[in-house]
User: Fold this.
Amino acid sequence: MGKIEWAMWANEQALASGLILLTGGIVGVAGQFRGWEFAAYSVAAGVFVCLLEYPRGKRAKGTSVERTGQYCFTVCVKAFGPLTRNYYVRAFLHAAICVPGGFMLATVLGCVCLGIASLIYLAAAIRGEHWEPILPRKEVRKPVAESIKNPPQNPPPRPPPEMRRKQAKDLESAAYDNPVSVTADE
Amino acid sequence: MGNWFVNNWFSAIIISVWMGLNIFLFVWFYFVYEHGEEFYYTRHLLGRCSRTMRKQLDKNLTFHKLVAYMIALMTAVHMIAHLLNVEWLNNSRQGVYDNLSTALSNLEDDTDDSDHRTTYLNPIRKNDIQIPTYFVFTSIAGLTGVIITLALILIITSSMEVIRRNYFEVFWYTHHLFIIFFAGLVIHGIGYIVRRQNKESYKEHNPLFCQNRTEDWGKIPECPIPQFEGGPAQTWWYVIGPMVIYLCERLLRFIRYMQNVQYRKIVMRPSKVLELQLVKKGFKMDVGQYVFLNCPAISQLEWHPFTMTSAPEEDFFSVHIRSAGDWTDKLIDIMMGVDGPFGTASEDVFDYEVSMLVGAGIGVTPFASILKSIWYKFKDNDPNLKTRKIYFYWLCRETHAFEWFADLLKAQEKEMEERGMGDFLTYKLFLTGWDQSHVNYVMVNVDQETDVVTGLKQKTHYGRPNWDKEFEQVRKENPTSVVGMFLCGPEALGKVLEKKCGKYSDVDPRKTKFYFNKENF
Assistant:
């Protein structure tokens, strides 16, 4: 498993956890469960985590595939600079966010899943990974070389006429291959 | 739409039947719990209850994914339902609801009788302030439920396309959490938590009559204390069959693993492609099938699939392996053990009168096997060979990758000409990654008989194929045939070809029809 980028999996896990937190929170609030305040918190936390994790980071090696419509989110997340670039920050952030979810049954699963995502992010951070935004590449036009403006004045040097004619017997020493047969007899 | 159905009617039927069964079971059990008299009091405590089912089947990838989505959906529904249940049961225990609920919840546990029947209805026994979380984590159903849902979530996130395609090991190892999932699933229901009024009690105590007379229960003859019993675990009925089949398959694979495999020849091809020729006693294969390879020196646990490039008529089997990740890289230095063969769509090639084979890059491997097999069948005048015309399209980015396959094509080209069979196989090679230096080289050598890139008589085309032109040509040359289109290559190309097959197929049965088949890992 040498080449794996843990952050990619951590990202999937965190996004899923956000959705699960959100769902659990909605059930808790809608059902007016005891401890519904924690459920309300989970709804907000879930939405926040989803927004943060939706834009996929750029892979260090290989082609990165964007999620649909993630460009706006990428720009927002990028705006926070080192806070979102560094995976240690994300690991601790997720660990902190997930704790209140553990106080209510409906959100316990979201809490545990987010905790796992936090651990995977920690592994990614230890391995030195960081988040890079996927941005559209700017095409750089190669500057036109100067030589194109000055065509040559003289024809290229050619060998003397005797050598130029293709010797039927001596193909090896002929200067070039003629596509059309040069002997009149054929 | 009509064309899609004609091509995929079998899969469509299987999926409809399976979905139908799922829906039927869901609705059936819904009504059992909704209308069954023995559940009258249970319903009162809960309001709603639903049952989740899922079935497991065989190794078809698409079906597997469909089942996985269904499991995920049902798990979500099941979990939400039980979250609500536990909350309401707990509240009921606290006496938050009406008299009947409180009375039902207060029923004591009477375990005097030796056949283990208990009297109570509400599975939450303690009535000091208890939170639902505590109940969940101290019951088998709750604990297994949380654990297996967690396993399921980890399996799903590591199976997302990004992870699966680029970090295969993570996907592979995490997927084995399914063992925990199924073990937990089977024991999930053994706690007899969902309870109902038992038959004898129902004869003596009618809920409709007694529900408003809770103070008189046990005091008047019409309403003795009602008796309840828990429902047994049932999931194992559905799971046991497939689990046994799966275990048998793994056992078989293990036995095969222990058998000896010998290396006949190992060749390193350009572009980091490794050709392995292996011999195993009693090994039988069909064209286009694949094998799983394991190399204990690299990893004890990993088995990776590879299509075979040899024909069944040969006395060995070969695979061509491209460097595509950790494992393949290491393999290119080390040796292995073999298991297989497994089947895919390519075996159907010989059933069509006319076949169009499209291979992109290393995707040409199943077709290598097919072309060689055709070669042998023709030599032996095999009567089973229905095919009388094959169009082969090979798309590749760089020239080096052609070379290992060039031998085969050259040999075939020569033999076909000698036997006057030049018409049988038409192949077109497309070099999609050409640049200016190629152009210059080709321009200078355009008059040569053989192609400068491959050394074959057939010239290499540059750029991607114009599929409309190709389909037109095939249709023109085969006005009344059934044409099978086989692709081993990227999704995007598959979608394009599928559309073309639909576009160029004629509804008139006497005219040309194209059927699309795809193999993709």
Q: What stands out?
A: The mean pLDDT of chain A is 83. Residues 6-59+66-127 of chain A form one domain. Residues 50 and 90 of chain A are 13 Å apart (CA to CA).
